[in-house]
Design brief:
Radius of gyration of chain A: 22 Å
Distance between the termini of chain A: 72 Å
Oligomer: heterodimer
Number of helices of chain B: 21
Number of domains of chain B: 1
Shape of chain A: globular
Helix content of chain A: 40-55%
Distance between the termini of chain B: 58 Å
Helix content of chain B: over 70%
CATH topology of the largest domain in chain A: D-Maltodextrin-Binding Protein, domain 2
Structural class of chain A: alpha/beta
CATH class of the largest domain in chain A: Alpha Beta
Number of strands of chain B: 2
Shape of chain B: globular
Order of helices and strands of chain B: HHHHHHHHEEHHHHHHHHHHHHH
Number of strands of chain A: 10
Structural class of chain B: mainly alpha
Radius of gyration of chain B: 22 Å
Largest sheet of chain A: 10 strands, mixed
CATH architecture of the largest domain in chain A: 3-Layer(aba) Sandwich
Order of helices and strands of chain A: HEHEHEHEHEHEHEHEEHHEH
Strand order of the largest sheet of chain B: 1-2
Strand content of chain B: under 5%
Largest interface: A-B, 50 and 53 residues
Number of helices of chain A: 11
Strand content of chain A: 15-25%
Chain lengths: 323, 499
């Protein structure tokens, strides 16, 4: 029996080895993906979706997800930079929210210390008002905010997060003083949604996914998305198309530890390139409603640098970061 | 009675053998992770999500609901037996439950918790069936000022947990309020009292505080007393089951607990902590056996446990009707829905009626399964208490440490657990009540941010607290609750003079 089992194992291993050799010329990687957040949030879901796509498609031999929660990712990035230096199999999921969190937390570690790999997905911000609000479009909202920024109350996610930044940028684009906005942070989009539905605030701002079903049910009016052009899933022109110069997206990406070799970086980038094109990943994107925004290599490095500069300016303007 | 017809259709979905099996797996898993501190139902659902991707949606969502309810049951078991609440919702249960267990009445305590959870879960699920569409309108109309008023009511009533000395109680409460300030302030994004330690930015974990104060503090206290006198724990004194008297003292708290748990759980920012503590405070006020409180009163277990489970059902109201997850587990269940392209929200009942009613029906079934599963286990669980004390408390320390590390793998978290353990020991040694610390830590930050939100919306006008009818009513209730005892006392003295 044991002999038989051993034999079975050996042949299985041999088969696996052959299969591995056939599917990819480059060695299949044994990846470790860190989600710098507790299970359940967006980064965790991204990491677990990557795990699913990478292993089901056979692009990676294995992918292990770990969670390092805390302080908007500040704890996770510190661990990546300090403990995983030079580890060519380690990835960390991150996103636009981390750019702001590292600034407001005065983190000693910055994103410049990581090795950028690729941007994966993006979600546009949506501005909504209660269905019975007198505000009909982005122009109306801009007029109201220009008249008195304090009287327009915004409900959104945590202070200094992407929702807050987008609201400040809207005020700025409307010609009002962004430091005067009356932004009310809620813990998570859900609680904010209740305040908007209850008509407690003028407008709500969050990822479109948070509002979609309420907009479709006619309980909220969509003012617009923060995309460059109208996207296919909504009926309303983008805020930029309505004449307010605001463009912002909440993207998610992966970075690697510092100190990895050029070959290691290439191997990670190739693996991500393959994953982004895989059928499995595309199916996940569709099911989760995430927009594909795949960019790798130097283009992503530049995006990351630009976003850091712009975010620092906005957060300084609204007084969350002291220059 | 359209709802009942739909529910009957749902039952047909839920009693398919495969779905029954999923419900059974769910409640077993849920009970197991509920018993282990640190691994909550939210993490379990998160770990299962990738596995269930290929399963049929109804089956896996039914399993998630089983885990959710099962976790609630399991959490109360450790709270009662070893004073280690696995989650903040079972903290109120630990107060009297553990005292009962120490007095040899662990059996009835577990039984009233299990039966109370069943009764409350069933009533609340029925409420979910019938009232969900109406309740959600009220829930949404709750503004920040109304939440603040609710917190004020909670603050006033939980003063019952202060014990005999208001000064000591208030001291404890203020320790809790101070601990609640630690971390990044939600409204301004600035960090307070965190001294540059990144682990403190996310506020102090309530379970770390509770496990430190309750379990570690208790273990240290027992160790310090050993040379003076060996405390004899009797596992079973009297009946292992509930006596007639126990039933008589339990049924009203079950119902009252449900009345607190379900509506508050249905509020988008309600949670399970407020109703459990409100229920505890109410039972303490209303009991005919005030002398038992502080020594293990069955009402103090029956009420909060019922409130806990009823609020779990309440949480499903905003989740299913608005797509609003109001607890970590609900958020994971939402992710579970989304992986099948099902978006909970106003259209869910219309678009996926069979799934929703299947889920609601399986909640009834999960509840019944949990009762059948847990009652026979009561005898086994109380055997835990016959373990020699040094072993038992060493085991509790290992459990508490492991749970904390599992939830938050960081040395800072362990340090905090130790510091809170020493604090808990000192408080017990010098006779300060522990519950107000937890109450202050949970309610303080909530009340603060709701008040500041309300004032932010009203542009700084405090009258907003009285202009909202809900808030005005709640504040009046709080005022009456505050003044009434003094008034009654005065009246009593008046009477005494008359005599």
């Amino acid at each position: 029996m044991t002999q038989f089992r051993k034999g079975l194992w050996r042949s299985a291993l041999a088969a696996a080895a052959v299969a591995g050799f056939v599917t990819s010329a480059a060695a299949q990687m044994e990846l470790k993906i860190m989600a710098p957040a507790a299970p359940g949030g967006g980064w965790d879901q991204t990491a677990r979706s990557m795990q699913q796509a990478l292993t089901q498609s056979g692009i990676a031999k294995s992918a292990q997800v770990t969670n390092v929660p805390g302080a908007g990712g500040s704890i996770g990035i510190a661990q990546l930079v300090n403990n995983s230096k030079g580890d060519g199999n380690q990835l960390m999921v991150m996103g636009y929210v981390m750019v702001g969190a590292l600034l407001t937390n005065k983190s000693p570690i910055t994103l410049d210390q990581t090795t950028p790999i690729a941007r994966l997905t993006t979600e546009y911000e949506a501005i909504v008002v209660p269905a019975d609000s007198p505000i009909k479009n982005a122009k109306d909202l801009a007029t109201a905010i220009k008249a008195d920024p304090a009287k327009v109350t915004w409900a959104g996610g945590s202070a200094g997060g992407v929702d807050h930044i987008a609201a400040a940028l809207f005020a700025k684009a409307a010609g009002a003083d962004p430091t005067k906005i009356n932004y009310i942070p809620f813990s998570g989009g859900g609680e904010a949604l209740a305040a908007i539905l209850g008509g407690k605030v003028t407008a709500g701002i969050s990822g479109y996914g948070e509002f979609e079903s309420q907009v479709k049910a006619g309980k909220l009016r969509l003012i617009g998305l923060t995309s460059a052009k109208k996207t296919a899933n909504v009926d309303v022109p983008s805020i930029k198309e309505q004449g307010i110069d605001l463009e912002i997206a909440n993207w998610r990406a992966v970075v690697a530890p510092p100190g990895i070799s050029a070959d290691q970086k290439k191997a990670l980038t190739d693996t991500m390139d393959k994953m982004a094109k895989s059928k499995e990943w595309q199916e996940i994107l569709k099911a989760k409603g995430w927009e594909d925004a795949y960019v790798s290599g130097d283009a992503f490095t530049k995006i990351l640098a630009d976003e850091q500069t712009r975010t620092k300016d906005v957060l300084t303007a609204v007084g969350l970061v002291k220059s | 009675m359209e709802a009942f017809a739909s529910l009957a259709d749902g039952l047909v979905v839920a009693i398919q053998p495969a779905n029954l099996l999923f419900a059974l797996i769910g409640v077993l898993l849920g009970t197991a992770v509920g018993v282990l501190p640190g691994i909550g139902p939210a993490l379990t659902v998160a770990l299962l999500l990738p596995i269930t991707f290929k399963l049929d949606p109804a089956g896996s969502i039914i399993m998630f609901a089983g885990i959710y309810y099962g976790g609630m049951y399991g959490g109360s078991t450790t709270a009662i037996l070893i004073n280690t609440p696995g989650e903040s919702a079972s903290m109120a249960t630990a107060l009297e439950g553990n005292l009962m267990a120490k007095a040899g009445r662990g059996g009835p305590a577990l039984a009233t918790a299990a039966i109370g959870s069943f009764v409350a879960g069933t009533i609340a699920t029925l409420g979910l069936t019938l009232l969900a569409p109406y309740l959600v309108d009220i829930a949404v109309s709750f503004g920040p000022e109304d939440y603040f008023a609710l917190m004020v009511v909670a603050f006033v009533t939980v003063s019952a947990t202060f014990g005999d000395s208001p000064v000591r109680g208030l001291t404890s409460l203020f320790i809790g309020l101070m601990l609640g300030l630690v971390g990044i302030d939600l409204l301004s994004g600035q960090s307070r009292l965190s001294f540059g330690v990144p682990e403190l930015y996310d506020n102090i974990e309530v379970t770390t505080l509770a496990v430190g104060l309750f379990a570690v503090g208790e273990a240290l206290y027992v160790a310090s007393r050993r040379h003076i006198q060996e405390e004899k724990l009797e596992a079973v004194r009297g009946s292992l089951w509930m006596t007639k008297e126990d039933w008589k003292r339990s049924w009203k708290p079950w119902l009252r607990g449900t009345m607190f748990g379900f509506p508050i759980g249905a509020l988008p920012a309600g949670g399970a902590e407020i109703p459990t503590f409100l229920s505890y405070a109410t039972e303490r006020r209303l009991t005919k056996h005030p002398e038992d409180f502080g020594k293990g009163a069955i009402e103090g277990v029956a009420g909060p446990e019922a409130a806990n489970n009823a609020s779990a059902a309440g949480t499903l109201v905003p989740l299913l009707t608005l797509g609003l997850p109001t607890s970590a587990t609900a958020a994971m269940m939402l992710a579970g829905f989304q992986q099948y392209n099902i978006n909970p929200g106003p259209l869910l009942f219309a678009q996926n009626a069979d799934l929703v009613w299947g889920l609601i029906a399986s909640l009834f079934i999960a509840n019944a399964m949990l009762l059948v599963l847990n009652l026979p286990l009561v005898g086994l669980w109380v055997k835990l208490l016959t373990i020699p004390q040094p072993w038992l408390y060493a085991g509790i320390l290992v459990f508490a440490t492991m749970g904390t590390i599992a939830a938050n793998p960081s040395p800072v978290e362990l340090m905090m657990l130790t510091v809170f353990g020493v604090l808990g020991f000192l408080m017990r040694r010098f006779d300060f009540p522990i519950a107000p610390v937890i109450v202050g830590m949970i309610l303080g930050p909530l009340a603060e941010s709701q008040l500041r939100r309300a004032l932010s919306i009203s542009l700084g006008d405090p009258m907003t607290l009285l202009q909202s009818p809900i808030s005005a009513t709640l504040l009046t209730i709080a005022l009456i609750a505050l003044v009434l005892p003094f008034f009654l006392k005065g009246l009593g003295r008046f009477k005494a003079v008359e005599d």
